[in-house]
UniProtKB/TrEMBL annotation:
Protein name per its UniProtKB record: Purine nucleoside phosphorylase
CDD domains per the UniProt record, alphabetical: YfiH
Family recorded in the similarity comment: Belongs to the purine nucleoside phosphorylase YfiH/LACC1 family.
Entry keyword annotation includes Hydrolase: yes
An example molecular function term from Gene Ontology annotations: hydrolase activity
Amino acid sequence: MNISSSDFSYIIPHTAVENDRVEAWFVLKNQGHSLAGSRVEGLNLGFNTQDEESVVARNRLLLFEDLGIDPKWVALADQVHGSRVQVVTDDGTYASTDGLITTLPGLTLAIQVADCAAVLIWDSSSQVIGAFHAGWRGAVAEIIPRGLAMMKRRGAASKSLRAFVSPCISLENFEVGPEVAEQFPSPFVDWDTYHKPHVDLKGFIRNQLRSEGLKDSHIEVSGECTVAGSRDYYSYRREGEESGRMMALIRIKR
């Protein structure tokens, strides 16, 4: 895990660090940060939380300033735990969307999470990038294969695609009912160890990426669990309505 910090702390995917055309970040909770009037501890970036919109908007501006991102040149998904992916060429919030793709240098794509996986994918050779929100619903609805197919239609090649799967809920903490577990292939469900079935969301997403032709060496999956890591990560499963939201961002350099 490559954690960088200036005013704030975030994870930079190793393969993005090696790349001179793409920048990517996963923003941590930043527990010590606090704005006057905030109800959520840390750098809460989600409007769908207990914080006032003015607090979240200020947090976002502070983050964008720290990363050198133009706040007027950010595309965000208004996530609904679905599999809709849009190709975007402008800033703004895209309704009922859980995946964004662009080929436009300088336009930053942003995804919010609090236990779901944020999946950042890029092909720097053809300059195609994507950001995807993959909770269990989106994952089984194949948002990742759908997004990769759209990226390939825009010039991305399996052999040069790279992916980062963010910290998210781990198998140990992802207890589900049988109606959810049955939607996953058996290799990604532990039916025996726990009182109820547990799902390996990270393993399932990694397998989807492999099945779409990505090399193992081009897939980086964080080993961190959002539920277990209360200092660094928000977790809706742990905190419920009191949880904030983290953010994953990616852009092609101008």
